[in-house]
């Protein structure tokens, strides 16, 4: 019997149905801030010690979070910072992700900066509120403030107490703090912490599970129409010769196709098909007949970009100096050079690109899943040819970002289409559109040349790194001065190349691959520069150790002494060498490193260490990969990944664990499973049938240990990625003697290395 039931199947219903088992088993999946302003006092609306939170009369404490939520539970982490110093009960805390009002300061979520950059301002804001509430509560209790303490959202004096809500209603908290006083606030000693470094439930999980959370793709407004872009054959230089929508007009619900004239220069040769619903817009876009004069990149591909990278790396004096110290060693005992390559990688977030734009009669309003609204607003204003203040940004939850939503140029065609249509337009990209209009992590070519002395110690280190620069192309005002003051550099294409190994002579240069930048828009992929710089550095160090006949773990340890700037500095890299050695020692012990010779034939262990994301925000980590390699086929099976991480104080330990787990799986994925190459100006792989991130059957055992300490918190969104690739590559060498210097590692590369 064939029974058909009428049911309204939503996207969330489908995901909840097929994904419920994963949720039940626990697989839940640079923030710059303005200085905390002075306390403003209370009133009938509640008490606002700072703009970062409000203590309401009903006892609820509303924390204002100026960062985007994209699965990392950032609201929970930031709210914990406030609640800890405020001495608030966690159950009293609510979180609001704020709008793009200038009062919140510059808004960006990326670089693993969120908790690290939020720690002092939000902690001081909480402490200021605690001080003011104690003073106000003491007056209400008729005692001295020195006789009072704050606990669980109350001010207590012996057996008597007054709640924060009661103080807010009374309006008795009025103290004003100057900026200097805020800076001078001493935070609680770590021994008195009651919330940080302790597990709790993230505040955003219920809404995501019950379907009430709003993602960019969920937003609707009255009179809204849908649109899909007709993406040109190349990002740059394409020109429409002619087009016809004769076939598209046959699609029910189709309205029109708009040819985009873009003053911002983002859309070069673009059309956008508009309809009453997205299936109609999507079908119509496929039926629009367009003839293009393609841009110069139409004949360029990955091989051309990498060939240019090799040429530039070999060119004397190319690029700019990232770091230099010391003089080259004369007559070193051993000199070794290695070239390391990575290929294009796409972000591929689950939620495809989308933006909703409309004019409310006063301003242009833009709703998008956006990691960096402070740069999106002026971009849209330029395209619409209006003052930036006429553009109001709104941000919802992000269905994945991974760096792709740090430059939301896809909002531009949405805005221009809304302007042409005179009504709200929701522009949605198909997965293929998304991939064509991608911002990949640029292919890279890195050449490292080291010299050692008679004892095997590293004495000279030369590095040449060539890649497309994302900051140069997306936000050139954020480029940094070169070390020698000659020119600019993109830190996101070079960070991690200056090692924490003590090497007297270092000469590190970074080189922009302008050919890459003419083919595609280089983007920020999770871990950005360190995702490839550490691949080169930690593979090279492993090679040096083996050439010297030294144990790779022991050799690394011997080169970390904390000399000069490697001694670290307050507040974020205190005890630098000791902490890096510590994670190395722990992971060696956890993995029975010294007994790896007893592993079965074809199995091996590889190690890598890192201090990423940035030198000013080092997350100390050490990873050991256990792999098995089939000598006949070159297939690699990762059996286990073990990582030890020192990230200082953990604002939200469950979130920290999830961040490292996700990062390690991403590192595994881009090492063995995913990656693409550009062909004729576009990625070869446009959908998940050929672009193949790691599948669940390929997930190994993962063992993560956090070092417990009270140091300031550092970044966690990206460091988990960094050490996995080199650890796997080094493990493959340990298993079968095949040294691979290119990512992703394919079976044919292993076979070739075995035959060499």
**Could you estimate the helical fraction of the residues in percent?**
25-40%
Can you tell me the residue ranges where pLDDT is under 50 for at least 5 consecutive residues?
1-42
Number of helices: 20
> SS-based structural class?
alpha+beta
**Beta-sheet strand percentage?**
15-25%
- Tell me about the biggest sheet? 7 strands, mixed
Instruction: Kindly provide the name of the CATH class of the largest domain.
Output: Alpha Beta
Count structural domains. 3
Report how far apart the termini are.
63 Å
Shape: globular
CATH topology of the largest domain: Aldehyde Oxidoreductase, domain 4
Strand order of the largest sheet: 10-11-8-18-15-16-17
Radius of gyration: 27 Å
Proper CATH architecture of the largest domain? 2-Layer Sandwich
Q: How confident overall, as mean pLDDT?
A: 92
What's the number of extended β-strand segments? 30
The name of the CATH superfamily of the largest domain reads Aldehyde oxidase/xanthine dehydrogenase, molybdopterin binding domain
């Amino acid at each position: 019997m064939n029974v058909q039931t009428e049911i309204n199947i939503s996207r969330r219903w489908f995901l909840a149905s097929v994904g419920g088992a994963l949720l039940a088993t626990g697989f839940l999946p640079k923030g710059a801030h303005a200085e905390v302003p002075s306390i403003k006092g209370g009133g009938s609306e509640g008490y606002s010690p700072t703009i970062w939170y409000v203590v309401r009369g009903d006892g609820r404490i509303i924390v204002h979070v100026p960062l985007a939520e994209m699965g990392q539970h950032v609201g929970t982490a930031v709210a914990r910072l406030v609640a800890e110093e405020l001495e608030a009960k966690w159950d009293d805390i609510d979180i609001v992700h704020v709008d793009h009002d200038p009062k919140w300061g510059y808004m960006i979520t990326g670089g693993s900066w969120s908790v690290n950059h939020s720690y002092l301002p939000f902690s001081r804001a909480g402490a200021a509120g605690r001080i003011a509430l104690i003073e106000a509560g003491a007056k209400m209790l008729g005692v001295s403030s020195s006789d009072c303490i704050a606990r669980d959202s109350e001010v207590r004096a012996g057996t008597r107490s007054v709640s924060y809500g009661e103080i807010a209603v009374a309006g008795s908290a009025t103290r004003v703090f100057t900026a200097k006083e805020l800076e001078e606030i001493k935070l609680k000693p770590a021994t008195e912490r009651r919330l940080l470094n302790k597990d709790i439930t993230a505040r955003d999980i219920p809404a995501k599970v019950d379907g009430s959370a709003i993602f960019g793709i969920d937003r609707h407004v009255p009179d809204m129409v849908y649109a899909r872009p007709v993406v040109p054959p190349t990002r740059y230089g394409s020109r429409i010769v002619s087009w016809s929508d004769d076939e598209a007009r046959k699609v029910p619900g189709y309205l029109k196709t708009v040819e985009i004239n873009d003053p911002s220069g983002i859309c070069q040769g673009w059309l956008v098909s508009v309809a009453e619903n997205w299936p109609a817009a999507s079908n119509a876009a496929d039926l629009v007949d367009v003839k293009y004069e393609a841009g110069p990149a139409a004949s360029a591909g990955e091989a051309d970009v990498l060939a240019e990278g090799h040429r530039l790396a070999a060119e004397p004096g190319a690029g700019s100096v990232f770091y230099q110290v010391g003089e080259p060693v004369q007559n070193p005992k051993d000199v070794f050079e290695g070239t390391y390559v990575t290929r294009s990688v796409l972000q591929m977030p689950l939620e495809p690109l989308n933006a909703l734009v409309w004019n409310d009669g006063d301003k242009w309003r833009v709703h998008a899943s956006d990691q960096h609204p402070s740069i999106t607003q002026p971009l849209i204003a330029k395209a619409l040819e209006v003052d930036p203040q006429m553009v109001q940004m709104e941000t919802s939850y992000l269905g994945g970002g991974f760096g792709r939503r740090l430059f939301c140029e896809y909002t531009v065609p949405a805005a221009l289409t809304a302007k042409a249509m005179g009504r709200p337009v929701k522009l949605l990209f198909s997965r293929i559109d998304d991939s064509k209009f991608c911002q990949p992590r640029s292919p890279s070519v890195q050449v490292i040349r080291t010299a050692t002395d008679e004892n095997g110690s590293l004495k000279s280190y030369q590095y040449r790194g060539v890649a497309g620069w994302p900051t140069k192309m997306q936000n050139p005002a954020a480029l940094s001065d070169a070390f020698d003051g000659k020119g600019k550099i993109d830190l996101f294409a070079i960070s991690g190349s200056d090692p924490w190994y003590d090497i007297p002579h270092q000469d590190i240069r970074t080189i922009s691959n302008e050919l890459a930048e003419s083919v595609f828009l280089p983007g920020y992929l999770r871990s950005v520069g360190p995702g490839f710089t550490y691949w080169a550095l930690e593979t090279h160090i492993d090679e040096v150790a083996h050439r010297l006949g030294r144990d790779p773990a022991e050799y690394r340890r011997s080169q970390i002494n904390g000399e000069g700037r490697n001694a670290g500095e307050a507040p974020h890299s205190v005890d630098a060498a000791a902490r890096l050695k510590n994670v190395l020692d722990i992971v060696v012990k956890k993995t029975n490193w010294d007994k790896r010779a007893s592993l079965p034939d074809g199995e091996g262990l590889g190690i890598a260490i890192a201090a990423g994301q940035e030198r000013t925000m080092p997350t100390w980590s050490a990873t050991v990969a256990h792999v098995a390699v089939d000598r006949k086929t070159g297939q690699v099976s990762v059996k286990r990944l073990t990582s030890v991480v020192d990230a200082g104080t953990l604002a939200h330990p469950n979130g920290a664990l999830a961040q490292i787990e996700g990062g390690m799986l991403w590192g595994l994925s881009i090492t063995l499973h995913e990656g693409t190459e550009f062909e004729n100006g576009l990625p070869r792989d446009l959908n998940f049938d050929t672009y193949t991130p790691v599948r669940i059957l390929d997930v190994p055992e993962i063992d993560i240990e956090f070092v417990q300490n009270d140091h300031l918190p550092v970044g966690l969104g990206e460091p988990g990625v960094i050490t996995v690739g080199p650890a796997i590559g080094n493990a493959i060498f340990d298993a079968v003697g095949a040294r691979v210097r290119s990512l992703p590692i394919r079976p044919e590369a292993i076979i070739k290395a075995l035959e060499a």
